[in-house]
Structures are given as structure tokens and as C-alpha cells.
Design a protein that fits this description.
The protein is mainly alpha-helical. It contains 21 helices and no strands. The chain starts with a helix and ends with a helix. About 0% of the residues have low confidence.
């Protein structure tokens, strides 16, 4: 018995396993720099993990959201939650844009760059994406919410049409009543099975993380990061400020502590950082926010919606990068021009929701209005992945805060359950 207990205490948590995978990936990336065979192998390892997560995300979202909405059973309440959610997302995203622009103006790091000494990365694929995506503004995003074919939306992984259909389906179940209760039981069982599968998939996370970061380091090389090290540092410090100050104050207003949230989801934040993917954390965030006391219907609606509209980290990066590049090119923006740029970023970022490499594509679509050429964005394209890791953490942390805040504002929150769950993590720490 003593040996068994000792074995349990020595077992590493998922967070530590991921950090070890991250360190091993960096070491191998440095050793095998520019080695195509290693890059292909490591990228394949990372892709397997991302694909496994993608495989389970939509079944969890569909089953959890249908059950949550069916139990809520109120169209008025759903509409109210939806409106509150979108307003909250817009307010926080706007603050994130403003914070990024203010920091970039204060430090003026772009003016320190010597553009002639910077290696440039090929961004032709991003330009093609930006050109095609720019024809689809906010109006087409709103139109695409209603799917013509639900199964097609499922197969392509389009989150908003899936959310719309499942919300309507859940309300339909509630309207039918007792006869449709069997569907709730089935979908509840599906959700529980998928959460179990998530646990198995997460065991592969350290290997996937090692592959993803290893391929990145092997491709970039550490020397290529030096000229833009200050921009990377400024980005991370701004994101840390946003989490602890902006999200911290928001949490405090509603009676929460940001440190409690970070403690509970620390493993998911490490995973988000090391994979630069918000999607990999979605199944666990749905589970943990419910254990934090948020009603299933609210959590199942807010978190998937947040993955499209609540991208605070991306907003910070876009604002920082936009001002940074104008400074690098010696372009002085007046206050009116910066406000115009802010509005353009806000609108374009919504229009690019769901586009691959959305943060970078948003910059491509907006920077020409202030005189920065497309080729100028090649300056920061090389380090985009490294900053992406940080902005993904902010996106995930922001969605956790949003879920708690909206749950409490809707009186769909259990304070006692929240306190017990947080206390269980404090004891482990």
C-alpha cells in the first residue's frame, strides 16, 4: 500500500508532462535545425494530436449544447444570454485593441528596427487568403450562421452554424417535452463518453506538443528571432497585463478572482500555449467551467461562441503589430488615423472569423489603409507562431472569465460548487 501511495505522489500532472514535452521539442528543434526529415516527422506528430482534438470537439459541443439548451427550455432566456454574450465579447475585444495600441505608442519599438537587416518570410499564401476573405465582411458572417446543411457544417467544422442548429434543436426538444426526453438522455450519454475519450486523447498531448514546437524551432532557428525579440517581449508583457489587470478587474467586479481561474485551468493554458491552438482546450474548458458552478446551458453556449468572437489575445496582437509596423516604416499616424485603424481592425477581425491564420490575415486586409505594403508584414510573419502561442493563452483565459461572468449575470451559477472546486485545486498546489 505504501509503495502504491508513493507511486501516485510521484506521478506528474498533465501540465508538467506538457512542459517537459515542450522542452524536449525545443532541444530537438535546435539539434535538427533545417532538417527536413525531422521537420516533417515532428509536424506529423503535432498534426495527429490536433486532428484527434478536432475529432472530438464538435460531438462534445453538439451534445453538451443540445442538453444545456433543452434543460434551459426558454427562447427568451437564450436570446438574452446571446445578446449579453455578444455585447460582453465586443466590449472586451475593444478594450484589448485599445490596450495594444496604447502600449505600442508608448514604447515606439518599431522605430528601432533596421528593415534592411531583417530576413523576410514568404507570405503569398496569406495574401491569397486575405484577398478572398476580404470579400466576405461582417454581413456574410451573419448570413452564414444559418446552415443550409447541418451535416455539411459539421464536416467542415464551422462552429457558428453548428451552434445555431443545436440551439434550435435543443429548444425543439424542450417544446416537445416528455416524449423527447429520450434524446436528452442519449445526448447526455454521448457527452459523457466524449469527455472520457478526451481524457485518453490528452495522454498524447506531450508528444503532440513536442512535435509542434520542435518543428517550429527547427524551421525558424533561434538566431532569426533576435531582431524582433523586443516585439515578442512587448507582446507577452501586454498580454500578461491584460490577463491580470483587465480580466482581473472584470472578474473582481463579478466577485471572482482571476488567480483562481488560472489555477483551475493551468493545464489547459499550458496546452494552449504549447500548441498555439484554442480548440485543443475546448472539451476540458466545457467540463471545468461547469464544475466551477456555471450552468451547462450557459457554458455550452458561451465557450464555443467565444472561440469565434472573443479573441482578446488576437486583438492585442493585431493592434500591437499594426502600430509597430507603421513605426518601422516611419509612418506617423494622427489620433484620427489611429481611431480609423482601430475601427477597421474591429470590423475586419469579425469578418475574418474562422479564416485560417485569421490574426495575420486581418493585418494584411487592414494595413494598406495606413500605407504599410503587404511585403512589410513579412517582417513579423516569421515570429507569428511564437506570438500566437501567447495570444492563444489570452483567448482561452478570456473565455473562462466570460463564462463565469455571464453565468453569474444570468443567475445560472452555483457559488458553493465554485468555491469547493477552486479549493480542491488550492490543496493540490
Amino acid at each position: 500500500m505504501k509503495n502504491m501511495k508513493k507511486h501516485k505522489t510521484l506521478r506528474l500532472s498533465l501540465g508538467w508532462q506538457i512542459l517537459i514535452g515542450l522542452a524536449i521539442g525545443i532541444i530537438f528543434g535546435v539539434i535538427f535545425q533545417n532538417n527536413k526529415q525531422f521537420i516533417n516527422f515532428a509536424s506529423g506528430l503535432g498534426s495527429i494530436f490536433i486532428n484527434m482534438i478536432s475529432m472530438i470537439v464538435l460531438p462534445i459541443v453538439v451534445s453538451s449544447l443540445v442538453v444545456g439548451i433543452a434543460n434551459m427550455g426558454d427562447l427568451k432566456k437564450l436570446g438574452r444570454i446571446g445578446l449579453k454574450t455578444l455585447i460582453y465579447f465586443e466590449v472586451l475585444s475593444t478594450i484589448a485593441f485599445i490596450v495594444g495600441m496604447i502600449v505600442a505608442n508608448i514604447f515606439n519599438l518599431g522605430s528601432m528596427l533596421d528593415l534592411s537587416q531583417l530576413s523576410k518570410t514568404d507570405i503569398s499564401s496569406y495574401i491569397k487568403t486575405a484577398n478572398s476573405a476580404s470579400h466576405h465582411g461582417l454581413g456574410s458572417i451573419l448570413l452564414s450562421i444559418v446552415p443550409s446543411n447541418f451535416f455539411e457544417a459539421l464536416s467542415t467544422g464551422e462552429m457558428l452554424p453548428v451552434i445555431f442548429f443545436t440551439a434550435m434543436f435543443g429548444l425543439g426538444i424542450a417544446a416537445v417535452g416528455e416524449r423527447a426526453k429520450i434524446l436528452i438522455d442519449i445526448l447526455q450519454a454521448v457527452a459523457e463518453v466524449m469527455f472520457k475519450v478526451t481524457g485518453w486523447v490528452m495522454k498524447f498531448a506531450p508528444f503532440g506538443v513536442a512535435g509542434l514546437i520542435g518543428a517550429t524551432v527547427a524551421q525558424l532557428g533561434l538566431n532569426s528571432l533576435k531582431p524582433l525579440a523586443l516585439f515578442i517581449l512587448m507582446s507577452y508583457l501586454t498580454m500578461i497585463f491584460f490577463i491580470f489587470v483587465v480580466l482581473g478587474i472584470t472578474s473582481r467586479i463579478f466577485g471572482f478572482k482571476i488567480t483562481d481561474q488560472l489555477l483551475v485551468v493551468k493545464d489547459e493554458l499550458i496546452l494552449a500555449f504549447s500548441t498555439a491552438s484554442s480548440e485543443v482546450t475546448l472539451p476540458k474548458l466545457l467540463e471545468k467551467t461547469q464544475k466551477l458552478g456555471v450552468d451547462k446551458g450557459v457554458a455550452s453556449f458561451v465557450i464555443p461562441t467565444g472561440y469565434t468572437f472573443n479573441l482578446d489575445g488576437s486583438a492585442i496582437y493585431q493592434a500591437l503589430a499594426a502600430i509597430f509596423l507603421t513605426q518601422a516604416y516611419g509612418i506617423h499616424l494622427t489620433l484620427a488615423q489611429q481611431i480609423t485603424l482601430l475601427l477597421a481592425l474591429m470590423v475586419t477581425s469579425k469578418g475574418m472569423a474562422g479564416v485560417p491564420g485569421a490574426s495575420f490575415v486581418v493585418l494584411l486586409a487592414t494595413m494598406s489603409i495606413v500605407g504599410v505594403p503587404h511585403s512589410g508584414l513579412a517582417i513579423i510573419a516569421g515570429i507569428d507562431r511564437l506570438v500566437d502561442m501567447g495570444r492563444t493563452v489570452v483567448n482561452v483565459a478570456g473565455n473562462v472569465t466570460a463564462t463565469l461572468v455571464l453565468g453569474k449575470s444570468e443567475h445560472s451559477f452555483n457559488q458553493e460548487q465554485h468555491d469547493k472546486y477552486v479549493e480542491s485545486f488550492r490543496k493540490k498546489a
